[in-house]
Specification:
This protein is α/β, with parallel strands linked by helices. It is built from 8 helices and 9 strands. Strand 5, helix 5 and strand 6 form a beta-alpha-beta unit. Helix 7 crosses helix 8. It is globular and about 55 Å long.
């Protein structure tokens, strides 16, 4: 079974999360994929940031939904970078073979038309074949299936045991993205955010786990290599 290692917002143990520096390092050092987050400014710009507010990761404050791109770009990440545009990240990834897990941050704020706008851009940048869309929001996943019926979709969840949203969405999903492995669910699973070495090793041995999302992809890659070497 293929087991992919995704850098969670790039490589945040060394660089600011969701920064171009973080993504560059992750690409250059051989991760299988990058997990990141997309939001939308009031004037329709698609930008990369985990939080709906810019307070935690920039020197500014306020909601992305209330800012124009020009207003957002008045502020910087801790390394001096501006908040990246999705287009710039796609341009960075396109010439490589790296995969992309793009999370739609729509649980607190639904950005009108974000599903179609993102997919149109992903298609234009020729990244659709290496991209999976994920979200906690069931309505977002349904809209994505409408605008991109052949695109891999994944439901994010913190729940264990029975997951009602999963039962309803299962026909349109390619994977379940879970905080903890769900052995009772016979379906491809990616685990987040797995950083402990013992948990990484355990995940690599779990049936149906096809990958992890981790803050330290280099550690995970070393563990995977050691396991492969032991089997050789």
């Amino acid at each position: 079974m293929v087991f992919d290692i995704y850098g969670h917002r790039g490589y945040p143990v060394r660089f600011p999360e969701n920064s171009m520096a973080s993504f560059n390092y992750t690409i250059q050092h051989g991760a299988d994929g990058i997990e990141t987050d997309v939001q939308q400014t009031i004037d329709g710009a698609l930008v990369i940031m985990h939080d709906e507010l810019i307070d935690r990761t920039t020197n500014g404050n306020g909601w992305i939904k209330d800012m124009t791109l020009a207003e957002l770009h008045q502020y910087q990440l801790v390394n001096g970078e501006q908040v990246p545009l999705l287009a710039d990240v796609l341009d960075l990834l396109a010439p490589t073979g790296i995969q992309l897990n793009l999370e739609f941050k729509t649980s607190k704020v639904h950005y009108p038309g974000i599903e179609a706008a993102v997919h149109q851009l992903v298609m234009a940048k020729k990244m659709a074949g290496r991209t999976v869309y994920s979200s906690f929001d069931a309505d977002t996943l349904r809209r994505l299936h409408t605008v991109a019926p052949h695109q891999p979709l994944a439901l994010l969840t913190t729940k264990t045991g029975e997951i009602p949203k999963f039962d309803a969405l299962r026909p349109i999903l390619s994977a379940l993205h879970v905080e903890h492995y769900q052995p009772q669910i016979d379906f491809p699973q990616r685990l987040w955010t797995v950083d402990d070495s013992l948990e990484i090793r355990s995940a690599m041995g779990d049936t149906n786990v096809v990958g992890i999302i981790t803050d330290d992809f280099e550690r995970a890659m070393q563990i995977r290599q050691s396991r492969l070497a032991m089997r050789a």
